[in-house]
Design brief:
This protein is an alpha/beta fold. It has eight helices and seven strands. Helix 3 packs parallel to helix 4 and helix 6 packs parallel to helix 7. Bound molecules: S-adenosyl-L-homocysteine and magnesium ion.
Length: about 220
């Protein structure tokens, strides 16, 4: 498929099944105005995250990598009224933009943005004795993915989902390069508690990989 065809298909999917939405559009606009990098999930991928969270009736979601809270808004919309989402972001300036975007989307009561390196925040969550999460979405620095998986798995309930964005960088096709995502995908595949798949998802300028893993009931 050519790039042009990908764009057309992605446009069709968005126009037919992912209608425009003031809160999401506002989040993108405010994030761009604040100079945040434009690396959020696409509308159709955001919707996919929401649908997956709905399927498992997620009540507690953990996100690693907030940026301007675009994916956070999609995921938080899957939550019931007493649901909770905790999202981890290293950059305090991004976290501020995210908090404002969540407020405009009326989602502040359900979402906590925790500022700091994700590994430290994950350790805090563990020692704080947080209730288990139903879904973990990994989308921060790619070298960190294997460690995030290790730290997040004990926080996930049996039957819960681990999702990870950007799982198909060019490096995966080059047998000679080492890459955090390559190690991450290998660990998913070898993990005895996980059943995993890697799916390409369209973005307007090509595609990205999303891994979907279910934590098996033991
Ligand atoms: N999930 C967002 C995009 C996240 S982009 C969306 O789709 O809308 C990746 C984010 O991870 C950036 O905001 C970056 O600042 C953050 N990040 C990078 N390294 C991190 C770390 N060690 N701990 C926490 N967040 C980190
Ligand atoms: Mg991403």
């Amino acid at each position: 498929m050519t790039q042009e065809l990908w764009s057309k298909v992605d446009d069709y999917i968005n126009e037919s099944l992912v209608p425009g939405d003031a809160a999401l559009e506002n989040a993108v606009k405010k994030s761009n105005e604040a100079g945040l990098p434009q690396i959020q999930v696409s509308p159709s991928q955001g919707k996919l995250l929401q649908v997956l969270a709905c399927i498992i009736k997620a009540k507690r979601i953990l996100e690693i990598g907030t940026l301007g809270a675009y994916s956070t808004i999609w995921l938080a919309r899957a939550l019931p009224p007493d649901g909770k989402l905790i999202t981890l972001e290293i950059n305090p300036r991004y976290a501020e933009v995210a908090r404002r975007n969540l407020q405009s989307a009326h989602l502040s009561p359900k979402v906590t943005v925790k500022v700091g390196p994700a590994l430290e925040s994950l350790s805090h969550l563990q020692t704080a004795g947080e209730a288990p999460f139903d879904l973990v979405f990994i989308d921060a620095d790619k070298e960190g993915y294997p460690k995030y998986l290790q730290k997040a798995l004990p926080l996930l309930r049996e039957g819960g989902l681990v999702l990870a964005d950007n799982a198909l960088p060019d490096a995966v096709l080059d047998p000679k390069t080492d890459h955090g995502i390559k190690r991450f995908n290998a660990e998913l595949s070898a993990h005895p508690d996980l059943i995993s798949v890697l799916v390409p998802v369209l973005r307007s300028r090509g595609f990205e990989g999303l891994t979907i893993s279910a934590k098996q009931r033991l």
